[in-house]
Amino acid sequence: MLIVQKFGGTSVGDLERIQNVANRVSESKKAGNDIVVVVSAMSGETNKLVSYAEHFSKNPSRAEMDMLLSSGERVTASLLSIALQEMGHDAVAMTGRKAGIVTDKHHTKARIEEINPHNMQNALKKGKVVVVAGFQGVNDAGDVTTLGRGGSDLSAVAIAGALKADLCEIYTDVSGIFTTDPRIEPKAKKLERISYDEMLELASLGAKVLQNRSVELAKKLHVNLVTRTSFSNEEGTLITTEGNIMEKPLVSGIALDRNQARISLVGVKDRPGIASEIFNALADAEVNVDMIIQNKAIDETTNIDFTVPVSDLHDAKSVVESFLKSGDINSDSYNEDICKVSVVGVGMKSHAGVAAKAFSTMATNNININMISTSEIKVSMVIDEKYAELAVRSLHEAYELDK
Amino acid sequence: MLIVQKFGGTSVGDLERIQNVANRVSESKKAGNDIVVVVSAMSGETNKLVSYAEHFSKNPSRAEMDMLLSSGERVTASLLSIALQEMGHDAVAMTGRKAGIVTDKHHTKARIEEINPHNMQNALKKGKVVVVAGFQGVNDAGDVTTLGRGGSDLSAVAIAGALKADLCEIYTDVSGIFTTDPRIEPKAKKLERISYDEMLELASLGAKVLQNRSVELAKKLHVNLVTRTSFSNEEGTLITTEGNIMEKPLVSGIALDRNQARISLVGVKDRPGIASEIFNALADAEVNVDMIIQNKAIDETTNIDFTVPVSDLHDAKSVVESFLKSGDINSDSYNEDICKVSVVGVGMKSHAGVAAKAFSTMATNNININMISTSEIKVSMVIDEKYAELAVRSLHEAYELDK
Question: What pTM was computed for the model?
Answer without folding.
Answer: 0.85
